[in-house]
């Protein structure tokens, strides 16, 4: 799958469910928390006076009921949801190419932040590779945060420094691949990485159901895995039901 359309078409709820089942032994089910203070603030109606001078002047103030839920992936392994994508990508490589080939060649990636390299994917792949006994080569900008560099090295990965632009990082990756034949695990726009990160949504839905709240409505998510989560979270929600939940005002946030 090389073009965007084919990737999107293949990104089905079934694909994310399969990823969820595969990565479960290797990642945490992080907490789903709410906050009474934020719920109260968001649910406090406006006064008629506060609407003066706005497009809603003269209309009865809305009386919303909002409940915020936070998916705390900061408690995930390496402190980010990127661990889900890295583990799924490596597990799929082993299934598709065989464990002996993957271990012989190793894997390589570069840090995903084009302008502010955080190193979460770098650490995630280093952790997944160490867990599965696979050699890992991680290309990181020389301006990366020292703690991220140390975290990546702590998992046994070989860190190679590069310039800060994506072009510079990818050039170094190509050089290392030519020498080692390592398999590239991209930090983004990769089908298996996306499916793995999308398992966050299935975790959220399972936890939300356990609260006795019914089916969760994935209205907003303040994280990069929004598109992955949306596909997973919609797998058995008919459109009419989703519209009703929007009116109720439940919001799920990362």
Automatic annotation (TrEMBL):
Keyword hit for Chloroplast: no
Presence of the UniProt keyword Iron in the record: no
Domain of life, per lineage: Eukaryota
Family annotation (Pfam families): PALP
Compositional bias ranges of the Basic residues kind: 234-246
Domain Tryptophan synthase beta chain-like PALP: 66-208
InterPro entries: TrpB-like_PALP, TrpB-like_PALP_sf
SUPFAM superfamilies for the chain: Tryptophan synthase beta subunit-like PLP-dependent enzymes (SSF53686)
A molecular function (GO) term: magnesium ion binding
Cofactor: pyridoxal 5'-phosphate
Annotated segments matching region Disordered: 234-254
Keywords of this entry: Lyase, Pyridoxal phosphate
Family (UniProt): Belongs to the serine/threonine dehydratase family.
The name this protein goes by in its record: Tryptophan synthase beta chain-like PALP domain-containing protein
